Amino acid sequence: MVGYLLPHPPILIDKIGNGEEKKCQATLEALEKVTDEILEYKPDVVVVISPHAPIFSDVFFLNDKPTIEGSLTRWGVRGVEFKFHNNLKIVEDIAKMSKKEGLSVGFVTDKIERRYGISRELDHGAMVPLYFVTKKYRDFELIHTAYCMVDDIKLYRYGMIIRKALEKHGKRSLIIASGDLSHKLKEDGPYGFAKEGVEFDKLLVDLLQKSDIKGLYDIEPEFYERAAECGFRSIKVLIGAFDGYEVESKVYSYEGPFGVGYCVAGFYQKGSTTSLLDEIAIKKEQRLKKIRENEDEYIRLARESLEYYVKHRRYMDYIPDYVTERMLKERAGVFVSIKKDGNLRGCIGTIYPTQENIAKEIIRNAVAAGFHDPRFEEVTEDELDSLVYDVDILSTPEKVTSRSELDPKKYGVIVKKGVRQGLLLPDLEGVDTVQQQLRIACQKAGIDYDREDFEIERFTVERHK
């Protein structure tokens, strides 16, 4: 078994880059070395795990089209097309094994494509790596899949299943974890700058250079989410495919000339060893235990309120003795956010107080976040141990007469037009300018940012996390 982490910026392709690709010379040279290795290895099947194939919250996309195709037409390049035979027997076995192991695999039908605008054609996360591979070697079948937004254990187990399905059919196989690293390396980059971006890329590259695979599972979800990467989960599926074996990883190159980190790395199977699965589970338990031990009164009340409701199907009818005097006497709007594995699981709040005190506001809104956020299914009892909570206490909103009074890191905003109203909390990942903040708030309110006038209010939050 051989695997690679390969970046996927279309600008690497000379017909798209038009000379700009030369700024990625280290990456291009590394891809040359990797494709030489692939030519020598001669895989029967190539599995591509792409972050730009259809991504679902808890379902792994798996392409079941007999022939998988794509082209670079979207980037103005004609005549560069991809067409691969799909090994449907392996695809069927991955789906069956996943179901047996309690993982969900989803196929996209023609009807789903038309209804939701989802495509089974090859995405650039698959095509860019395959463009370089097929320059030298084309004699392989393709399995096209994606990760989903589940925990490390499930990502790892999906990789294990892919490996078992490939071995069942006796195929010489190669797995490509497609992904770029942080998208926030430079102020003038496409997503701006975040110090976590530079820190995450350095940490990940250092770990891969040392073949410290276990160390990858010490990286906190909140940290790599702030880094705005798209390849880490692909890597974790790939690592699962090496279950039971030592892994030697080798970094061929790393650079970020355009504000996005591009890493080319190889993963090679060595001698047998014990499974990482138990260690990953222990690390997750330790992380959550640490979070629980550091909860303040606001977070603890939100968590216990939702847990009580899930188990008893009624609101908590008592106030715990750890609740502070301030929480009992003061009134304020409150937002409760719930996350699972670093991803939003629910968020509901009140701009103005609706209950007699902050404590009861938290109790109501914690339940609402778990049960009444229309974007998510209701929280179930088996999820409770995996949930992490944030509580924001809002100040009384005040009207703004000039946008110069706004700061998306310090103030949240409320936009109003008649009965339409939208709110956005401050200091959110990816919201770096006033214009971004107002556009998103207007979108939530159904207000046309460019064509309609609207009122603006600002507020601060006291954040508990």
From TrEMBL:
Domain AMMECR1: from-to ranges: 293-465
First and last residue of the signal peptide: none
GO molecular function, one term: oxidoreductase activity, acting on single donors with incorporation of molecular oxygen, incorporation of two atoms of oxygen
InterPro entries given in the database record: AMMECR1, AMMECR1_dom_sf, AMMECR1_domain, AMMECR1_N, AmmeMemoSam_A, Xdiol_dOase_suB
PROSITE patterns: AMMECR1 (PS51112)
Gene3D superfamilies: Hypothetical protein ph0010, domain 1, Hypothetical protein ph0010, domain 2, LigB-like
Cross-referenced PANTHER family: AMME SYNDROME CANDIDATE GENE 1 PROTEIN (PTHR13016:SF0), AMMECR1 HOMOLOG (PTHR13016)
Database matches in NCBIfam families: AmmeMemoSam_A
Protein name: AmmeMemoRadiSam system protein A
